[in-house]
Amino acid sequence: MSTTSANGLAIELHGLTKEFGNITAVNDLSVRVERGGVIGLLGPNGAGKSTTIRMLLGLIAPTHGSGHVLGHDVRSPSAYMQRVGALVEAPVFYPKLSGRDNLRTLAVLAGVDNERIDEVLEIVDLTGRDTDRAGDYSLGMKQRLAIAASLLKDPELVLLDEPTNGLDPAGIVEIRELLIRLGHSGKTIIVSSHLLAEIQAACDRLIIINRGSLVFEGPTHELLDQARNELVIVPEYRSDLSKLAALLDEKGINFAANGVGLRAPGATAESAPVNRLAFEHGVTLRELRADVEDLEDVFLRLTDTREIN
Ligand SMILES: Nc1ncnc2c1ncn2[C@@H]1O[C@H](COP(=O)(O)OP(=O)(O)OP(=O)(O)O)[C@@H](O)[C@H]1O
Ligand SMILES: [Mg+2]
Known about the structure:
CATH class of the largest domain: Alpha Beta
Number of helices: 10
CATH topology of the largest domain: Rossmann fold
CATH architecture of the largest domain: 3-Layer(aba) Sandwich
Distance between the termini: 53 Å
Helix content: 25-40%
Number of strands: 14
Bound molecules: adenosine-5'-triphosphate, magnesium ion
CATH superfamily of the largest domain: P-loop containing nucleotide triphosphate hydrolases
């Protein structure tokens, strides 16, 4: 029986599930990730991001379902580990050694030469600071050194678990720019975060999970297609609701009634005509407003960490 799937996908998951006792950390996750570009793995704390990444790296085995990385079964990680780089925990370096010497110790283990150390230092923009002690690096520089370490083997796939966690805004921008550069290099970069805003600008695609389950998968710009965009119309008197509904019907505007008012999806540009129409028919409006979600609102609603009414 072959454990290799013949397609060219970076990652393919079918019903991937991980249970820890009675906690289902990852629940029936199915996604296909094409090679190349930056893919954001998003979800609030405890959503199952790290558990997913640890399964992809073969550090823990799935309870049910299957996962393939670069065509190989996650249950046989040795078949693909040489081709995958990762940042999974807060990076640990020898603080008294320089950034370069820290990479040198790792390069020996990874079996790569000194020339590659120069290359990865260049990629993460640490050339010039490479001989400074790693212990004196800012948090952002430490994260970039950790990413440099993950790139030593020139991997096709790079898994970065929350590389922006704990960074100040300038550090986040540095990591985001680095992700964009890496995405252009032909590698597949999977980067997790619990904050959409921190990585969204760098991501070509998003995988959003909540309580272990998939809630969105697709191009980043398609997330905005899920944004609520409604005109909220509330008459002063409830008795005018049916009249108002008839007027909207006549005008060909779709709406849903909720007892106190109407909500018309996609009709936010119609507020002035609706206002005029209501006035002309003797209906006074108590409320006429656009209820429009931005990307962050959609993310928060999908992961229900904030109530939106
Ligand atoms: N080794 C473990 N034993 C028991 N439960 C675990 C273990 N690892 C993770 N969990 C649980 O699985 C769920 C998912 O955890 P996970 O660390 O994957 O989430 P996460 O999305 O990475 O969260 P965070 O943003 O906080 O890093 C949580 O409820 C967590 O408590
Ligand atoms: Mg985590």
